[in-house]
Amino acid sequence: MMRPLELYIHIPFCVRKCQYCDFLSAPSTKEERQEYVEGLCRQIRSYGETAKAYRVVSIFVGGGTPSILEAGQILDIFAAVYDTFAVEAEAEITIEMNPGTVTEEKLAAYKRAGINRLSIGLQSAKNDELKLLGRIHTYEEFLRTYELAREAGYRNINVDLMSAIPGQTVEGWEETLRKTAELRPEHISAYSLIIEEGTPFYEKYGVRKGSTRELPGEEEERQMYRRTKSILEEYGYHRYEISNYALPGYECRHNLGYWDRTEYLGIGAGAASLMDNRRWNDGGEPAALSRTEQMEECMFLGLRKTEGVSKARFEAEFGCSMESVYGGVLERMYGLGMMEEAGEYVRLTERGIDVSNGVMCEFLID
Questions:
Q1: What's the fold here for domain 290-366?
Q2: 150-168: pLDDT as tens digits
Q3: I need a surface site. Which of 42, 67, 126, 252 has the fewest CB within 10 A?
Q4: pLDDT of 125 strictly over 50
Q5: Are 252 and 191 in contact (CB under 8 A)?
Q6: Which pTM value belongs to this model?
Q7: Total Cβ atoms within 10 A of residue 257
Q8: What is the DSSP string of 17-52?
Q9: Residues spanned by CATH 3.20.20.70 within the chain?
Q10: Side by side, which strands form the sheet with 339-342?
Q11: CATH topology of domain 3-258
């Protein structure tokens, strides 16, 4: 029987690097992009033997800015995918895009390639915040991109948003949330800014604290986080993962597969893979995960979902009960009000979600 597999395809190019970005991406020439696409297609086709054991249930084209590629280049990549892999007819197929790089021609090509879900990077509805972040677009350009996508017939669209931007207020974040929700995208990803070492933002805000536009404080950031849930619920969105909200039936299947440890193959510069309980990055050597590491991943990835981790699934996968491995941790987290039982699931409470990273660390076995 063919096993389910997710594909991730990485496009490491962008028009300009954002101030906060630590992803593997950089500006490029047309020639560099074409050379990369040709190499990517060869790499995809090299998995012919591996592909025989799998059926692809989702594909995610990420970056960088995949929409920087020409329409024909995307079609070439997907021709290689369909030549190599058995892709389910109902597979969820997503491409990330940024306003300023999208055209009607590209959107039509995405349709021909089988892409049925778009993920648009907005981040903020305020132009001063977009400029501060180093984004190449305005809010008005985002609106035009969104309209083009709807006109092209796309009915599954995600919009990425970012809170805790330097100088941002709770009221300003609420305005961005409401403007976005009123457009009725099927999915909204709302992430809090993380200052990563090696980025321009780290130099401004991670080392020197004398800036006149400081980051929002911890309490203010927590307020933004809580308002995200309450405001999006007003518009009919439900939180199904710590930072992701969807209208009913539009949860991102690719992301859920990742949190459930569905096998996935990453193709392209720096892309990560998990197959046969081995992890590796593109170009690196696969490293086998121990049984302990697999159990740890099952817990700290699964707890990102609001439904939590299934005790029955844990036992079926590892041949022992969750309590036999994590009984002490679970009792402690229940007692602190950080976690709770819900039927056969264990999950984070609202209080636990507030400090989720700390709670998840409790499931690392010494």
A1: Arc Repressor Mutant, subunit A (1.10.10)
A2: 999 999 999 999 999 988 9
A3: 42
A4: yes
A5: no
A6: 0.94
A7: 19
A8: --TT--SS-B---HHHHHHHHHHHHHHHHTTHHHHT
A9: 3-258
A10: 309-310, 345-348, 339-342
A11: TIM Barrel (3.20.20)
